[in-house]
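Chapter summary example.
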Amino acid sequence: LWYFLVHGTTFESQGLLNRTSVPREVVDYIVYGTVIQEVKTSNVAREAALGAGFSDKTPAHTVTMACISSNQAMTTGVGMIAAGQCDVVVAGGVELMSDVPIRHSRKMRKTMLTLNRAKTLGQKLSLLSKIRPDYFAPELPAVAEFSTSETMGHSADRLAAAFAVSRLEQDEYALRSHTLAKKAQDEGLLLDVVPFKVPGKDTVTKDNGIRPSSMEQMGKLKPAFVKPYGTVTAANSSFLTDGASAVLLMSEEKALAMGYKPKAYLRDFVYVSQDPKDQLLLGPTYATPKVLEKAGLTMADIDVFEFHEAFAGQILANLKAMDSDWFAQNYMGRKSKVGAPPLEKFNTWGGSLSLGHPFAATGCRLVMTAAHRLKKEGGQYGLVAACAAGGQVRVCAGSARLFNPSRDPGDSPLPWAAHSNAQQPLLHRNPSSEPA
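The structure predicted for these 436 residues follows.
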């Protein structure tokens, strides 16, 4: 378990520095997010930093906020820069879904702890003789809310039903995600992957979960959560995968002084929370109007939308909620709807449904995809939003961030610039012909 948590994170940190040519010694702080923690590497940010060759004098800490853990890592870094504590921060996230910790049963754990305190051979043999077959049944981890004991898939199915999102609509959206991701990959747009050698297996050089299918094939799959009549299936849900990501954050002054041109500026961000029972996955609907108001923008100003695709039903339910005056008035206390993003601007390079969802690493991917799209498409403003599990606060948290690739006169963005999923730099050397 600890191998990828440490070495995968170390590797993408090195990839980040190699692609940006940023010296390790200028990095003031490192912060990472993770959801499924290993006891040996509970502060994985610190272990990965040391493994990547950062100075042992560079502080590092790890945060957790469910699926928006790397979002929290990034905004924590931004806050440190805004407060004048740092000029350069590396932020990111890591998740290992293929080898999650599996615990012994409570009975076995209790017996083993007691056995460890036994002083004589007789006491040890007596304890061992009390072990029964059911002691060996492991406690398997579940992707479920602690406060409701409901899996996110069940919640997505109920949400889709509440907003009358059909199975057909969900399958069509999922197929769209895979089709767009395949197109983006074929066109050389998904260049953020740093090749990683998996022990005993091949080297991963690109996203390998993109599988455009057909409506006929997707329609054959049975409901995954609410059986037999649910609409959420394996085909219209994001798949769990291993992943590590990182971005490079700098104050504008530091970036320009070092000869870099920021790829993107953070303009504003918000976090919101709501009832984890019935609104677990509606974070983007609540967060979007708030961040637009804070930034002084409207939906019409946004050129690029990148929303986390936990489930196709979750995405489509949010789009319906955002486009509903009734929902805005009755649930959000607003006079009118914020409006749904136009699909021609929405997740046009695929999303979590086709690229996978390594919990804590997804946030950086969303931000970097938005930044790349802004540059590629000549856009000015991008909006990133993600839902997340309730976690410790037992509520659903959502985040939305806005950034623009070039400052406008009068803009006062928060001091950030960034990099990518351990790969293509958000900060890059300024060509001599292009003024900073």
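To summarize the output: The longest strand covers residues 265-274.
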